[in-house]
């Protein structure tokens, strides 16, 4: 959810729930937790004041930046213990897993 907001900026609930493949009720519950943790903030949508748009807060942005640095460090560590051939196999398996997940998500739309 946080990554979707990081990539897309402020989003309406209908768009977020569709992108995440979850119900509006599930989204609302998750957003409430993230809002309580001060990782997201909600404001009136620019196009329709009746709708709340959700965006990362400053604290949420900082959290995502730290997470990205940790992922990068982990990727470097994994790469350092694999040969080029093993890295290629790992990348191929990751792409296959992603395609499978995308297919699964697409079937639930």
UniProtKB/TrEMBL annotation:
Q: Enumerate the GO terms in the molecular function aspect.
A: DNA-binding transcription factor activity
Look up the domain of life of the source: Bacteria
The residues forming a coiled coil are: none
Which PROSITE patterns has this protein been placed in? HTH_MARR_2
Signal peptide per UniProt: none
The HTH marR-type domain extends over: 1-99
User: What is the name of this protein?
Assistant: Transcriptional repressor MprA
Organism encoding this protein: Vibrio spartinae
